[in-house]
């Protein structure tokens, strides 16, 4: 298994789940949103992505972003979902340019994380987590 691809797949799943748990267009169907967001939170939305099939972490990130962009949030949570998905784009597009084997990787990640308003992102993430717990079956 290619270490860089494994890091890419693992990183994408972990980052997206973290952004969504605190850890499209308006008016989407609540049940469909719950299913889609749940798959992102538990990482199953990338189950069919084989990190071994590519030496290009950007391909894994692109797949993750395409799938996240297809989620249609209900209007009640749309603003928070948009904030979170924009942060995902910033992080994953930035991560595609980083080398996890570089001596500066940790510092580079810190710099990348600093490009997004963490307080606003945390609020949006908390709002999504609350919405999911109140409106989606466990």
UniProtKB/TrEMBL annotation:
This is Lipoprotein. It comes from Sanguibacter antarcticus.
């Amino acid at each position: 298994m290619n270490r860089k691809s494994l890091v890419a797949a693992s990183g994408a799943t972990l980052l997206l789940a973290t952004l969504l748990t605190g850890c499209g267009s308006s008016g989407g169907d609540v049940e469909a949103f719950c299913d889609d967001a749940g798959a992102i939170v538990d990482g199953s939305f990338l189950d069919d992505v084989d990190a071994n099939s590519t030496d290009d972490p950007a391909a894994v990130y692109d797949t993750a972003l395409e799938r996240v962009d297809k989620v249609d949030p209900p209007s009640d949570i749309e603003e928070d979902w948009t904030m979170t998905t924009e942060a995902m784009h910033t992080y994953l597009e930035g991560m595609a340019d980083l080398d996890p084997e570089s001596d500066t990787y940790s510092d580079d990640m810190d710099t990348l994380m600093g490009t997004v308003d963490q307080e606003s992102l945390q609020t949006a993430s908390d709002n999504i987590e609350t919405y999911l717990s109140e409106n989606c079956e466990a």
